[in-house]
Specification:
There is one protein chain. The protein is mostly helical and about 850 residues long. It has 43 helices and five strands. The protein has a five-stranded mixed beta sheet with strand order 1-2-3-5-4, with helices on both faces. Helix 4 packs parallel to helix 6 and helix 39 runs antiparallel to helix 40. The chain is globular and about 100 Å long.
Length: about 850
């Protein structure tokens, strides 16, 4: 199967309605009449080099070639000068001259130039440009003009004609036919960068980033300075590699300093990173080229909106609507940026304002659906998404979200006070009680700590399939590193079954997301990401210190190498996949510093100050009388106190490479550096490999003394536990596993191994064994044996309600000995005085095993009314 023959998306749920397309999208199928559709990222196309013009540069006079190149490089006066000398009635000449006018915002001039030629040559390049201009301005006659251009797809054989028809088809929303026409055009002219670029734009619009990037790369192989392809590549890379995307966009500006698309792209990236002054500079450059740029005015308006500058917002909206009265995109973009800043209720309002101007816009309808999902209005979201899908059945995000909602219809819903919990029906009997109990505890604890009670209802949805979780959040599968998400009143997360046991701690994730509920609402959804994420990670560590130890060693090493983040770059670091993990951890350390320096009251005041609409510098000044520069000094001092000792022991001796050294060289190095954790650990691993077990144990003991909280298979305690087991020293193995489990919270295998060894050793002290089984259940709540042990320990402690919860989970998990499980639950009910429930469970046990003595004895007690 060739690339893009089928580009799969997550097929979520059983489809209850016929949805054409959105399954896969063919690049190379032989017929262009029947092909389905696939993935990409939404795109506002700002500058398109007319394909026919670009292709004709290899056939037409040298002057037209020069005009095409001048247009690509933004030398618009040169375009005018060159085309002045050419036949003004030539549709290709008129198209390129009009494009130069459109780029500068001279829309009436372009209209006057194109209209008569489009009427005379309705399938020409000039007609295409005219139709696109009318569509941009919201004119109703655009559809008829573009339809005549699109019609040539049925009879065209020339690449230029096919590509022109494809662009018209795309504008008309006939994406399947557009894809087919581009495929034929590319086959007819495989070395045309304009066709490859235009095809890439189509892939990108329809969420197929891999194929889009291949198209742009193909164009750039043909012409490394083809600016539209570079800009397309930048947009394609924006989510996965922001630094490379920004660098690529800057290359566009080196070729064409007037490229509005590049300026707007960089403005968007700057906004995402929190560099709003930089974004304004890019927007000003765009408007200097084209004062009537609708997209530039929309983004200026959006920026004003999220900065709570309402008069400026309305003024920019008015400028856009004066140019194009039905340009709902102005409100849609503001809504999208509001949502990016966590202001989802406001995003709903803005999307509705956009639809009041352009009610049949499928993208805005889809945006409305997404915003409504994030506010918890799932019925309203379905209505909006269904309406979008009827107009554009090739939008994969809409398709996926509707499928996801079908899946949600099969979930179990539990309501408990302000909490609404939705889970898969196979998991609810096991997890529901634990999730609700932990959620109430988290919200109660955090509400008291932050002196704020969040508004409900709070919807929590837990997904057993990670791709379902990803689609619920962004409409596409993926989000590989994400475990949970919070939108203020909606929390979504992976279930423990979404990943292998030990890959993540679901309780920590739920606590983290519920902390977001508090901080988002407390700040009126205006808290910056560094602070809300920092608080959530900080609160994880507050609740359970072992939840927050994962990066201690790595961060100490980064401090030694000078690889930590400056506070001024902290928010930006959340946008880069290479630094996002570091950003989370360092933000939590900054919050810890804020609490130490300013107290809990200072942190709470900062959150409330953000809620007044202040930006970070102003908020820091108003709440704490400080700024990032001052904070940096105090923060660095705080890091020295927190990590000074750890930094010293994790430092590698200068010039040494312990992992590559011989055993003898390591012995010498370890002797001269007895307080170097990497050296002692490397020596222990090398000695164990060489069979010198006693020496290895001594080295591991030294390493463990230096860093007792080290985690992982190669950590000192893990290695010593393995050695003890090999030597059949069960007592030592238990000691080492206890130390390992105490710091390596997610290590479920170590916890299970410890439990087995304690059982073999006859250790029955509840104070010793209960924490081990609690750890197992915390990591893998689907372990029936661990629930059974915890239930029986609860019975010993005269805690029948706690025992019943454990035994209910065991029954839901379908244990091998079901009669014993039902009897366990019956005994817990009996102890708590719930005799009717006890009898029901006892009879269930006897139905499975009629001669089961324990159940028979309990039934007799119940019948005789004995206590």
């Amino acid at each position: 199967m060739k690339r893009a023959d089928i580009i799969r998306v997550s097929m979520i749920g059983r489809l209850r309605r016929l949805r054409l397309g959105a399954v896969g999208w063919s690049r190379f199928r032989p017929s262009r009449r029947f092909c389905a559709f696939g993935l990409g990222t939404a795109l506002v196309l700002l500058v398109i080099i007319p394909v026919a013009i670009a292709q004709s540069s290899r056939r037409a006079p040298q002057a037209l070639q020069q005009a095409t190149r001048a247009l690509i490089e933004g030398r618009l006066d040169d375009v005018d000068a060159i085309t002045d000398k050419l036949d003004a009635q030539d549709p290709n000449v008129a198209a390129i001259r009009a494009r130069a006018s459109i780029v500068r915002g001279r829309y009436q001039q372009a209209d006057a130039l194109l209209r008569p030629i489009a009427q005379r040559a309705p399938s020409s390049e000039a007609a295409l440009e005219f139709g696109l201009l009318l569509q941009m301005l919201g004119r109703p006659d655009a559809t008829a003009v573009l339809g005549k251009v699109a019609a040539i797809a049925e009879v065209a054989d020339a690449a230029a004609d096919l590509a022109r028809a494809a662009r018209a088809l795309r504008a008309l929303g006939r994406f399947q036919e557009a894809n087919a026409a581009y495929r034929d055009a590319a086959a007819a002219a495989p070395r045309d960068p304009a066709i490859n670029t235009a095809w890439g734009e189509l892939f990108l619009e329809k969420y197929n980033r891999p194929e889009a990037l291949k198209s742009f790369q193909a164009a750039l192989q043909l012409d490394p300075k083809w600016a539209p392809a570079l800009l397309g590549a930048a947009r394609t890379l924006a989510d996965d590699n922001p630094p490379q995307a920004i660098a690529t966009a800057k290359r566009v500006l080196e070729i064409n300093p007037s490229d509005i698309g590049a300026h707007l792209f960089l403005a968007g990236q700057a906004i995402d990173a929190g560099h709003r002054d930089e974004a304004r500079q890019s927007l000003q450059k765009a408007l200097a080229v084209n004062p009537s740029s609708l997209d530039a005015h929309a983004l200026v308006a959006a920026l004003a909106y999220v900065e709570d500058k309402q008069p400026e917002f309305e003024a920019e909206i008015a400028k856009a609507l004066a140019i194009a009265p039905t340009f709902g995109e102005a409100y849609r973009v503001a809504g999208e940026l509001a949502a990016h800043n966590y202001r989802f209720d406001e995003a709903v309002v803005l999307a509705r304002r956009a639809l009041a101007l352009d009610p049949q816009n499928p993208r805005t309808l889809a945006n409305l659906g997404v915003h409504l999902l994030r506010t918890g209005d799932e019925p309203g979201a379905r209505i909006a998404l269904d309406a979008s899908f009827k107009i554009d059945p090739y939008d994969v995000v809409t398709f996926n979200l509707l499928g996801l909602m079908d899946t949600l219809d099969t979930f179990v819903t539990a309501r408990d006070g302000d909490l609404v919990l939705r889970m898969h029906k196979s998991e609810a009997p096991v997890l529901q009680d634990y999730v609700l109990a932990l959620s109430h505890k988290a919200l109660t604890t955090l509400a008291a700590r932050y002196e704020f009670t969040p508004r409900g209802p709070i919807l929590i949805e837990i997904f057993p399939k990670h791709d379902d979780f990803a689609v619920r959040n962004v409409g596409l599968p993926g989000m590989i590193g994400a475990l949970g998400a919070c939108f203020g009143r909606v929390v979504t997360m992976d279930s423990p079954k979404a990943r292998p046991p030990g890959e993540f701690q679901w309780e920590a994730t739920l606590w983290h997301e519920l902390a977001h509920v508090v901080t988002l609402q407390m700040s009126n959804q205006r808290v910056p990401r560094w602070l809300t994420e920092g608080i959530s990670v900080f609160e994880e560590k507050r609740e359970r210190p072992e939840w927050g130890r994962e990066m201690d060693l790595e961060f100490a090493g980064r401090l030694n190498r000078g690889e930590t983040l400056k506070l001024s770059n902290l928010n930006e670091a959340f946008q880069d996949p290479k630094t996002i993990s570091l950003a989370y951890y360092q933000a939590s350390l900054l919050v810890e510093h804020l609490v130490t320096a300013y107290g809990a009251a200072g942190l709470n005041k900062l959150l409330r100050t953000y809620g007044q609409g202040l930006e970070t510098e102003a908020a820091l000044k108003a709440a704490l009388n400080t700024d990032f520069d001052q904070l940096q000094v105090g923060f660095d001092q705080s890091l020295d106190r927190l990590f000074g000792d750890l930094r010293a022991v994790v430092a590698v001796p200068e010039g040494a490479e312990p992992q590559r050294m011989t055993v003898e060289a390591l012995r010498v190095l370890a002797t001269s550096h007895p307080r170097s954790y990497p050296v002692q650990l490397a020596l222990g691993l090398a000695l164990r490999k060489a069979g010198e077990i006693d020496g290895a144990m001594q080295a591991f003991e030294r390493a463990a003394a230096l860093v007792p909280t080290a985690r992982g298979q190669n950590s000192p305690h893990a290695q010593m536990a393995e050695i003890a087991l090999e030597k059949k020293d069960r007592t030592r193995a238990i000691v080492e596993l206890q130390a390992l489990v105490g710091s390596d919270f997610d290590n479920v295998e170590a916890a299970r191994q410890l439990a087995a060894l304690m059982r073999e050793a006859g250790i029955s002290d509840p104070a010793k064994i209960r924490p081990v089984y609690q750890r197992i259940v915390a990591i893998d709540p689907f372990d029936a044996e661990a629930h059974t042990v915890l239930g029986r320990l609860a019975m010993q402690a005269n805690a029948p309600d706690a025992a019943a919860r454990e035994f209910r989970a065991v029954i839901a998990l379908g244990p091998v000995d079901q009669a014993a499980a039902h009897t366990d639950l019956a005994e817990s009910y009996f102890m708590s005085g719930k005799r009717a429930e006890a009898k029901k469970q006892t009879l269930a046990a006897l139905e499975i095993a009629p001669s089961y003595e324990r159940a028979q004895e309990l039934l007799l007690k119940l019948a005789e009314g004995r206590p």
